Amino acid sequence: MEYNDYFRDEYKYFLNSVVYNISDNFSDDSDNGVNVVISDSLRFDANKDFLVIIATRKVDTVPETINTEVSYGARLYFKDISINVENVDWKEKFRTEHLFDNVLRELFSRISLIISQLTSACGQVPLITVPFIEKDI
After folding, report:
1. 4-62 pLDDT, tens per residue?
2. Predicted model pTM
3. Which of 27, 53, 54, 62 could in theory staple to 35 by disulfide, Cβ–Cβ 3.0 to 4.6 A?
4. Which pLDDT does position 70 carry in this prediction?
5. Under DSSP, is residue 50 helix (H, G, I), strand (E, B) or coil?
6. How high is the pLDDT of residue 29?
7. How high is the mean pLDDT of the chain?
8. CA distance 54 to 44
9. What are phi and psi of 97, to 5 degrees?
10. Burial profile 84-110: b = 16 or more Cβ within 10 angstroms, e = fewer
């Protein structure tokens, strides 16, 4: 089944949470190298009326100077369909059917923008993360 077979054109995007921490040991000395570790995750929660997708990106640095975590969500409203939507493995549908590609592209582009704005708050060049998710999560 395609996206339009499950969902109406009605949807809502929302900022779910933001965490931003900067270490007391933060230095703007550009001679010190920093490794950036990025991890993405998805959570799917369904009821009979809608599916909520929460996309989260966590960014840590080694050594630990800045860490941030941003979660953005989408609420997708179901059409009247004859399957029990609460028992569907939505994460598996994400992996195999590319069902949410457009929604996730929208969520992760928003997440990427927020992370860039947060990481530039300390006066440095913003950290730009990719505006999409890898398929292997």
Report:
1. 888 998 899 999 999 999 887 666 555 567 789 999 999 999 998 999 999 999 999 88
2. 0.87
3. 62
4. 97
5. strand
6. 56
7. 87
8. 7
9. -115, 0
10. ebeeeebeebbeeeebbeebbebbbeb
Tokens found for residue 9: 């054109």
Tokens representing residue 94 in the block: 């994400």
Who contacts 46 (Cβ-Cβ below 8 Å, separation ≥6)?
A: 52, 85, 86, 88, 90
Tell me the three state secondary structure of residue 116: helix
Long-range contacts of residues 3-7, Cβ cutoff 8 Å, at least 24 apart:
3/99, 3/100, 3/102, 5/79, 5/81, 6/76, 6/78, 6/79, 6/81, 6/85, 6/99, 7/51, 7/76, 7/77, 7/78, 7/79
Least Cα distance to 18 among 53, 45, 58 occurs for 58
Q: In the structure encoding, which two tokens stand for residue 53, read together? A: 């997708």
How far apart CA 113 and CA 124 sit, in angstroms, is 15
Percentage of the chain lying above the pLDDT 90 cut: 45
